[in-house]
Amino acid sequence: MTEHAHDKVWQGTAEAYQDHVLPLVSRTFALTIPQLPGALHRVVANAYLLCRVADTIEDDAALDAVAKRRYEEAFVAVVTGRAEPAALAAELAPLLSTETIEPERELVRNLPLVIEVLRGFNRAQQNAVERCVRVMCEGMHRFQQEAARRGGEAGLADQAEMDRYCYYVAGVVGEMLTELFCDFDPVMAQRREQMMRLAVSFGQGLQMTNILKDQWEDRARGACWLPQALFQRHGLDLASLRAGAYSPAYGAALSELIGVAHAHLRNALSYTLLIPSEHTGVRRFCLWAIGLAVLTLKNIQRRPDFQSGADIKVTRGAVARTIMVTNVAVKRDALLRSLFDFAWRDLALTPLDAAWEQPSWHPAAAELQHA
User: Fold this and answer.
1) In this structure, how many other beta carbons lie within 10 angstroms of the beta carbon of residue 314?
2) Mind listing the pLDDT tens digit for each residue in 79-108?
3) Helix boundaries (H) for the chain
4) Which has the closest alpha carbon to 230: 360, 350, 358?
5) Does residue 237 surpass a pLDDT of 50?
6) How many other CB atoms sit within 10 Å of the CB of residue 94?
7) Which residues in 297-309 are b (16+ Cβ under 10 Å) and which e?
């Protein structure tokens, strides 16, 4: 591997490293996480970076399925305190493909610093982060196995399987954040059950938006996270879809999925309004994510023939307006509802499956009862 400036040993504190690397691996979270109050800012940034390491292992082109599973298990052992991070970082970092961006490889090399920050949190915070990473790694591996068996471009079986996939990569993050919020504030702790139910839906709304936005880039690397059954109902074979080959049937299927994501984002707003209004930073963290997702869905709806994520990228001006408007309304629930009613007034809306109203409240619940 060619030596980069990033290969040098980090000279600052572990927390300074977190602040340094976060904007290099995520522009969006580098914008939203600093809105959180200090104690939450540190633990949420740490959790995001650990989830990013899990993603890096799962997505790296140089690792085969056996190696991915081995390193995921080793990573979970490190996060849960059953193994030391330095050995894993030294072994894994040189194996990563050059297709993996340099900041992500740097993050793996500096895993001991990220774990050092994790060990400084209280037990409840560590438990929440550890569970999230463990469930995410187990779930991603399960779905990668299924994708290999079916063929990557064949997609997921149906909407229920898409729900499960979204749980493992995003819904579990919503659960973790809720645990962290409840640890931070006793009022939110009293609303834990309501918030936890909505948290999974919140995560799915954001993840489905990303899946729709990135579908052509995913397909180019041999992956597809769209539901086969839905497209078959519209007379389409997912494996045969190609960027630029738009059809009305594809547009109808896409609109239905936009509507499902929209329905979940409505739950995300309900979640946000359960956060006490004095916690403006926590509300901004949520509202900005919801607002950017709504803008992305509207761009996709306007350009259903888009061929890459760049075609439907939210402009800097739209981001700035979203931030400004939500900041003005952040403490006023009625105004926030009105603003979002206006924002998604012309967006397709698909009623959620009845499973979302059942006591299990997320599709992976049964699988996780003994996890």
Assistant:
1) 18
2) 999 999 999 999 999 999 998 999 999 999
3) 14-25, 27-32, 38-59, 65-79, 85-92, 102-109, 111-118, 123-150, 159-166, 172-184, 186-190, 192-213, 215-220, 228-233, 248-273, 280-302, 316-329, 333-343, 365-368
4) 350
5) yes
6) 11
7) bbbbbeebebeeb
pTM of the full predicted structure? 0.92
What is 14-150's CATH superfamily?
Answer: Farnesyl Diphosphate Synthase (1.10.600.10)
d(CA 24, CA 366): 37
Q: How far is CA 307 from CA 243, 261, 313, in A?
A: 5, 20, 12
Q: Name residue, tokens 């299924």.
A: 146
Rounded distance between C-alpha atoms, residue 38 and residue 267, angstroms: 27
Question: For residues 293 and 206, what is the distance between their CA atoms, to the nearest angstrom?
Answer: 6
Amino acid letter, 97:
S
CATH classification of 152-361 is 3.40.30.10, yes or no?
no
Q: Where are the domains of the chain?
A: 14-150, 152-361
Res 330 pLDDT > 80: yes
Please write the tens of the pLDDT for every residue from 158-213: 999 999 999 999 999 999 999 999 999 999 999 999 999 899 999 999 999 999 99
Nearest one of 202, 74, 188, 75 to 129, comparing CA atoms = 75
Residues in the chain: 371
Cβ neighbours of residue 367 closer than 8 Å, sequence gap 6 or more: 164
